[in-house]
# Entry
Amino acid sequence: MKTILGKKMGMTQIFDEAGNVIPVTVIEAGPEVVTQVKTVETDGYNAVQVGFEDQKPQRVNKPLTGHFAKAGVSPKKHLAEFRVEDGEVYEVGQVITVADFEAGSKLDVTGVSKGKGTQGNIKRHHHRRGPMSHGSKHKRLPGGLAAATYPSRVFKGNEAPGRTGRETVTVQNVILVKVIEERNLMLVKGAVPGGKGSLVRVQYAVKGQNK
# Structure
């Protein structure tokens, strides 16, 4: 399986054989279980649905309870679906672990970035500030947004203050430094999106980038 769900545990550092320090993000990935296999004949496309992290039965609604019972697996907190080339190679109830990933390979990690709330245009879009001299009334304010006569409006998509962060972000080609199978841990080089305890999706780098 080339994709696995995990939980970001935080960052630390390790040393390689040459004694160089490597900053890594610790991800508790899996184990996840296949809850449904979709095929072109039944659903119109090939995909695999997986469940990650056990959930208390009383916190699962009736439709999902029946869905998990049909698959013969315990209730899960997170469900995700991944497109595959041939969904028939997977079976319902199959367990996927970090053992499917090899150290040294390149990964794409997707997560939801930290929310920053409402921020100004400088922090949100990295605009330059205005003159800081005495009497200036344009230190951190946005510049002109629209012409006076035509078009007499602000174009959609104009970079302005607003909500910052809490967006789906993917970092590509991060190196998988180490896999600890007995603890379901993956150590990837550098930072990945999200805060501690947030859900992330880890997959092999897209074709052409995993070199």
About this structure: The radius of gyration is 23 Å. The longest strand covers residues 3-15. The mean pLDDT is 90.
